[in-house]
Amino acid sequence: MKGTLKLAYDAKDDLDPPWRIDETIFVKELDVGYVHTFKKGAPSAWAEAQGCTHSLCFMLHSLGARLLKTVAYIAVDEDAEGNAVWEKWRVRTPSYFSN
């Protein structure tokens, strides 16, 4: 059912991992240790034109991002020519999060 939380024991196989809820992906930033929320799809047409495939979600807004297996590129700013300024984060998608 769309919109329901999938717990570790509900996961059917590797195509349905427990850290995904629908199109939401939880990743841990390795250098700082924070867990961040990404969603599939760019947050705006400009971000999509810059090559963003995901949105890094915050409380009231989101940033464009390219989320790969072990690294995330975050569009943190815009330069004078209108191109994205990228910040690189080392990330991982753990099967569980410890407190």
Number of domains: 1
In percent, how helical is the residue content? under 10%
Order of helices and strands: EEEHEEEE
Q: Which spans have pLDDT < 50 for at least 5 consecutive residues?
A: 4-19
Span between termini: 28 Å
Shape, per Cα inertia axes: globular
Radius of gyration: 14 Å
The main sheet comes to: 6 strands, antiparallel, barrel
Tally of strands? 7
What proportion of the residues form beta strands (DSSP E)? 35-45%
Rounded average pLDDT: 80
Q: How are the strands of the biggest sheet laid out side by side?
A: 2-3-4-5-6-7
Q: What are its keywords?
A:
5% helix, 1 helix, 99 residues, six-stranded antiparallel barrel
3D structure, described in words:
The protein is mainly β and 99 residues long. The protein has one domain. 5% of the residues lie in helices and 41% in strands. The protein is built from one helix and seven strands. It has one helix at residues 45-49, and strands spanning 20-21, 24-29, 35-40, 54-57, 62-67, 71-78, 84-92. A six-stranded antiparallel barrel has the order 2-3-4-5-6-7. Strand 2 (24-29) and strand 3 form a beta hairpin. The longest helix has 5 residues, at 45-49. The chain is globular and about 35 Å long. The two termini are 28 Å apart.
